[in-house]
Write a structure and sequence with these properties.
With about 1100 residues, the protein is an alpha/beta fold. The protein is built from 37 helices and 40 strands. Strands 27, 28, 29, 30, 31, 32, 33, 34 and 35 form a nine-stranded mixed beta sheet that branches. The protein has a seven-stranded antiparallel beta sheet with strand order 14-13-10-11-12-15-16, with helices on both faces. The protein has a six-stranded mixed beta sheet with strand order 17-18-21-20-19-22, sandwiched between helices. The protein starts with a strand and ends with a helix.
Length: about 1100
Amino acid sequence: MKPTKVLIIGSGPIVIGQAAEFDYAGTQACKAMREEGVTSILVNSNPATIMTDEGIADIVYIEPLTVEMLTRIIERERPDGLLPTLGGQTGLNLAVELADAGVLDKYKVRVLGTPIQTIRDAEDRELFKQLLISIGEPAPPSATVTNLEEARKITRKIGLPVIVRPSFTLGGTGGGMANTWEEMEAIVTNGLTVSPTHQILVEQSVAGWKEIEYEVMRDAVDNCITVCNMENIDPMGVHTGDSIVVAPSQTLTNKEYQMLRTASLKIIRALGVEGGCNVQFALDPKSERYYVIEVNPRVSRSSALASKATGYPIARVSSKIAVGKRLDEIPNAVTGKTMASFEPTLDYVVVKIPRWPFDKFASGDRIIGTQMKATGEVMAIDRTFEATLQKAVRSLEFGNRSLLWEDHNWALGADIKSYPLEPSDLRLWAIMAALRRGINAKEITKHTNIDLWFISKMQNIVAMEKQLLSQSLTPDLLRQAKRLGFSDEQIGTLADRLTEQVRQQRHSWNIRPVYKMVDTCAAEFNAATPYFYSTYEKENEAVLIKEKKAVVIGSGPIRIAQGIEFDYSSVHSAWALQEAGYQSIMVNSNPETVSTDFDTSSRLYFEALDEESLRDILENEGDHTDSNDPINAPPSIVQFGGQTAINLSQPLSRAGIPLLGSSADTIDLASDRGRFESLLSHLDIPQPPGAAVTTIDEALNIAKLIGYPVLVRPSYVLGGRAMEIVYDATELIRYMSLAMELDTKHPVLIDKYLEGKECEVDAVSDGETVFIPGIMEHIERAGVHSGDSAAVYPEVNLTEAEVKTIVDYTIRIGLGIKNKGLMNIQFDIMRGDSSDESGQVYVLEMNPRASRTIPFISKVTGIPMVKIATKVMLGHSLKEQGYPMGLYKKQKLFAVKAPVFSMSKLLGVDTYLGPEMKSTGEVMGIDHTFDAALTKALRAAGLMLPTKGAILLSIADRDKPEALPIIRRFASIGCKLYATEGTATMITAAKLPVTVITKKLEEGHPNVIDIISDGTVDGVINTITGGSIPFRDGFYIRRAAVEKRIPCYTSLDTARAVAEALINGDQTYTAKPLPDYREKEPA
């Protein structure tokens, strides 16, 4: 029976292992419900998503994803169906918890798609193993255990190495491969802690076997199809989210392909999954033996990749199956001709490469294993494996790193052991370096277990490099190089020419890319979807669009500092263009996102976001009939794709391509330190004293002049990359030496570090009017990156005069810089000793683009910022759109944005908050009082302490006076205090009860690590001593807290906010749809 009202659980904040693919899946599901006439209720805590837009689901709740909150929503909305399979592991776990708590039975809510028992069968390691045995499918020798002693017993029986897999977790959390007894004990202990059921599987390692995935679909009447099969280039032992993946598989025999396909369909039938399901196999390369490794009975990261690789909308079809449709009743919206029961066919190659965060976390452990570390991924499509691989590498946006890159620290010798060929984020480049130096392909295969077919293809790339180095460039050689995916820049490097000369030469020989369509059926039917990839062949399928059009440049892979927020802005811009009567053309390389969905824009190019790709696409879209303008390209929008798109503004402008919105000069004026400083001086707006420097001597002189501490950072960067607070000359010399080594050709900026209150505004301007929807006040003081700081709307602690000044400066800058579109400005307010008086307002920085707070401010105020900005770019003034100069009226609500971190996945990375961004995602708490909104945000972010919990305190000397009142507040509500020696002395002197715990790890037990690891304490407050190399004791405390998954506060401002939330937290908070907060007073 078809349900009438369905609750869809979102996946919450972006964390490693659970990224934007669930925004894409949830958005598809909501659209599918609407098409089927079913009312959708969406619950998610992440405001930076398209799925939480009011136009996507019928009823939207942005609330913490807890059983208690979901129960209240179910009680209020009375849905008759629950769709748990589109919210990743979070959605599945919550569905099981709701069932266990009796909530689903009480309110007669039916689980759609995948039944609760199926979720248990697939997620509970023991039940899954029994199911495989019952249907005769092979699983590796293993046992499910619930304590360390049992794990030791089974390891003795199976023999090392073993793989540890915790139940009900995502991204391989808490798991790993153990080669020694010490490793086994450490991984098992951690795995038992992180599994919600405290259950792990210890299984025989099949490291080195091939890893193969099948994406399969089934409906209620048992129709089953295979959507796609994918081969991991990295063998077993590396998490599939951290593997380079190719679709369709390239090295399987037909017999192996059919054998695993049959097994996949048998498993989905035995589980009774209705909808999409992902099955992972280990295949022995030396025989036809295989094992079933795991099944995801839900839409997963691989589903998003399979959907984009084939053009088959898995999430949409799964949602329709969940409400009772059969596969042969669902039209494939991509072809418009076939039904969803028609298996896709690929006449191209797809490669996915993960995007790791080690460019940001140089101290992180780069070795990759069974626990995922990548924050995002890119996908490329072409006709040959070589070209697809090179295109995917270009899409990663690691500076200009092509496959030619080699690390100057590698000892590149004749011995294969001198190459870092163990699994890491750099292994691909190490293989290329080895091949260049004559290391035999078979030897590399033996060393890495990567199939010889893939190594041979990489050998073809190296052979072409040698040709380009040794032969003169001819039309034939250039065409061959382009067919193998070489960029103009690579060809220029090898053939000793400038990149632009290669491009001109290409054009003179008429060597240009053509664009082919992704149509799911290898051109067997005419497809309805304009979804393209480039290749160097003859026939161009992306024919000219005659109507008015504009190109939206997307934001590429999800990484720290450039997340899903920018995809949100890109999608809204595409929609606004369509609403204004324009054809919107999207360019992006990220398979996880809504922007690369088949129906988001009028036309989609799945391409790398670099100058060559964009110019080729824009030339293809150009109307070449105007002799005065040979390119005549449509205009591009660079404001919504984060720093990726902004960085393209200058090269595109130089190439004569028009930009919509702010000009390339305006963008440069905001990004160039010297020019922006001059503008602020001219506008009489104060900024922290500082300068741009290019040598160590200049840096030392400036720092001496303005006084330490100073804030140092490179210009033209994103997310506070390589930003530090420096306290003395020794540290400054170290920082500058590293910066010189990087040679970014941009100066280093040095500013006086002002430890004031930080605020920010997002504004839209049209050159005559500047409109500000609201001011966001940061909870942490200046010095913590804005992306890592909790922020509240509306401001709660600013004086009227400070608000007036912020609005005045925003208007002056918007008009002075001639900004057209969005801008974000960050302010620092320095107050005197009396905090009641208005302080001096300084401008810290201005970004001439959409910022990461655009989704947050748009949702809490109801002002569609991206839509307004896009219309401004098309020539509709703010006045025409009905938006006045200045600050919009305050809403009668409070909203708090809190950061979410994925530090437990990144070993060796310090977690203290500073000027360099570290968070991967965000959540929002919204309510009618500040305390209620704050409590919700802290709960949703996993930063809340239990009432009357225990806290470990280790406070730096200079922070002790400020910390004491906060410690008193925790003590007043019954929190048990533990502290390191110096901090305990202060607490005792204040006549508060405290237990002293040593931080000297070598001086007996219990020490600070012991009381964190054994669960004695529920949270840690640890502030760092000045200097960029924090005490190792502090580092061990912070890492122990992260690995135990308890909150660790390194900013006293966060700790103070938590104390306030606990004190006022017993008040009731509300649960209601997002628009109700804006429109209605509290009842």
